[in-house]
Design goal:
Blueprint lengths: L14 H12 L19 H17 L4 H7 L4 H9 L3 H7 L11 H28 L6 H20 L10 H18 L11 H7 L7 E6 L5 H14 L3 E6 L4 H15 L6 H6 L4 H15 L3 E5 L5 H17 L4 E7 L14 H19 L2 E7 L24 H5 L2 E6 L1 H7 L5 H14 L2 E9 L6 E7 L4 E4 L4
Helix pairs in contact: 1-2, 1-6, 2-3, 6-7, 10-11, 11-13, 17-18
């Protein structure tokens, strides 16, 4: 079998991995355990591809993958090919596969994953060889080469993820037991939350917290406070003891840290504008406050990844590393913030079709939430069409989700942010009276942030007023009169 591929070194390909799976399927294995993720092109030699194709056909047509049925479904030229490759007839080769079975039917799913893993390893080697050859070509375009290789690796990684990672089929009674466990946990916490706290009382009451296994989208136009809300909430989820990850595709970690310092200082009654930190206009007394805030941050289970141009595969890798770090300090990762969705680099699969690219990214984040049981909070840019509407019609709505309706479909909860003050600060009154009214209104709403729940699978759709100090990146509960 070492001649399975002329380009693969003998030591690189292990035929027994494929033979174990094929033998198990021919002698009692349940094809349904691998049908969702194993394909014929995952097998290296053509005779194994031919066998797997016949096994799939046997299952589809007869519901059985036993050797007699599979033999009848092999193509007419199978005997010639098998003799050329193995010096055996198809029947003799299949009979010999019985001795290759290691784990049997109980290990079929694991064996199928091993086949995919071997395929991925060999395909990665092919990509590496191509990369080396192209990189040594002085006329090649380095940027194009890197993009091509990244796309190929994304595809390989997607195949590796295709196999089931967790139990997905349960009885209603089993699901009910899990539901009661969440309810009892919420009762023990004493705050009625079934998820991780937002750190905002009215938002917690309306949502039950950030739910694990679900994707929440926070959409807004620029300067509405997306990053301020995301980071402020991340600090509070971390303060509650939940491991928290923040993947920033737009703002650097140092800038985020500055925002975090001003947010923490705000809790101590000290208002330090974020812009003052950037320009160095900080008073000596404020430096001591910021140092204390820095020590406070150092105690939090909060990890920031700063890197533009990440693909969904990269996001997964970063998330897994954060999970390892969180486990190491005894605070399992519970929430992941992504700032922001449209900046994730799509694969080459739908290149040029932005709607399909966003669909792929949105679906990938939703899958990430379910697969790792995380509350994924994805910040999202909204359509600029909002700006062309009349002032009293600029509050966001579902149709403003940029690029694709898939975000609306994939998200379990969708939240919009709106600050009337942003628009009032930019516009002037048409006459003296209108200007007086504008200034008066601006004073009333200067620190008002509307937290608009536009969609929620398990709760009310409503608007919650919050307090915001944009200059200090502080988001808090609104004052109660």
């Amino acid at each position: 079998m070492s001649a399975a591929s002329q380009t693969i070194p003998d030591a690189a390909y292990v035929p027994e991995i494929e033979q174990d799976v094929l033998g198990t399927l021919l002698f009692g294995g349940d094809f349904r355990k691998v049908m969702s993720f194993l394909r014929e092109d995952h097998f290296v030699p053509d005779i194994h591809r031919m066998l797997f194709r016949a096994i799939r056909a046997a299952h589809e047509q007869y519901g059985s993958t036993t050797m007699p049925i599979v033999s009848r479904l092999l193509p007419e030229d199978a005997k010639i090919l098998f003799i050329q490759k193995t010096d055996q007839s198809p029947s003799a080769y299949m009979a010999d596969l019985a001795s290759s079975i290691v784990a049997g039917p109980a290990g079929l799913e694991r064996g199928g994953k091993a086949v995919v893993a071997q395929w991925a390893r060999l395909k990665t080697a092919e990509v590496g060889k191509l990369l080396r050859e192209t990189a040594h070509d002085a006329t090649s375009d380095t940027k194009v080469t890197i993009q091509s290789v990244s796309s190929d690796l994304d595809t390989i990684a997607a195949e590796l993820r295709a196999g089931p990672r967790r139990k997905s089929r349960v009885t209603l009674a089993e699901a009910a037991v899990g539901a009661f466990a969440e309810i009892e946990e919420a009762q023990q916490r004493g705050n009625g939350l079934t998820g991780v706290t937002w750190g905002l009382t009215d938002v917690n009451r309306a949502t039950g917290g950030i739910q694990r296994g679900e994707m929440t989208v926070i959409g807004a136009r620029p300067s509405m406070g997306k990053t301020a809300v995301g980071l402020s909430v991340a600090i509070r989820t971390a303060k509650s003891g939940a491991g928290t990850g923040f993947i920033s595709l737009e703002m650097g970690a140092k800038r985020l840290a500055m925002r975090a310092l001003t947010d923490i200082a705000y809790d101590w009654g000290i208002q330090i504008a974020y812009s003052n930190l950037i320009t160095g206009r900080v008073e000596p007394g404020e430096i001591d406050t910021l140092k204390s805030a820095c020590r406070d941050l150092d105690t939090l289970p909060l990890w920031i990844e700063e890197q533009p141009g990440l693909s969904m595969t990269d996001v997964r890798v970063k998330t897994e590393r954060m999970m390892e770090s969180a486990e190491a300090v005894g605070c399992p990762l519970g929430v992941l913030f992504v700032d922001y969705l449209q900046l994730i680099r799509p694969s080459a699969r739908y290149q040029g079709n932005r709607n399909n690219e966003i669909t792929e990214i949105s679906g990938g984040l939703r899958e990430l939430a379910r697969e790792y049981n995380l509350g994924v909070v994805a910040l999202s840019q909204l359509s600029r069409n909002i700006e062309s509407r009349a002032m009293n019609e600029r509050r966001p709505m579902m149709s403003d989700l940029r690029d694709s309706g898939a975000i609306e479909q994939d998200a379990d909860t969708i939240i919009f942010l709106f600050r009337e003050a942003y628009y009032l600060e930019k516009e002037k009154g048409k006459d003296a009276e209108a200007e007086v009214n504008r200034v008066s209104r601006l004073s009333d709403v200067q620190n008002k942030l509307e937290f608009i729940i536009g969609k929620q699978r398990n709760g009310p759709v409503k608007t919650i007023d919050l307090f915001v100090d944009i200059a200090c990146s502080a988001v808090r509960n609104a004052a109660r009169l």
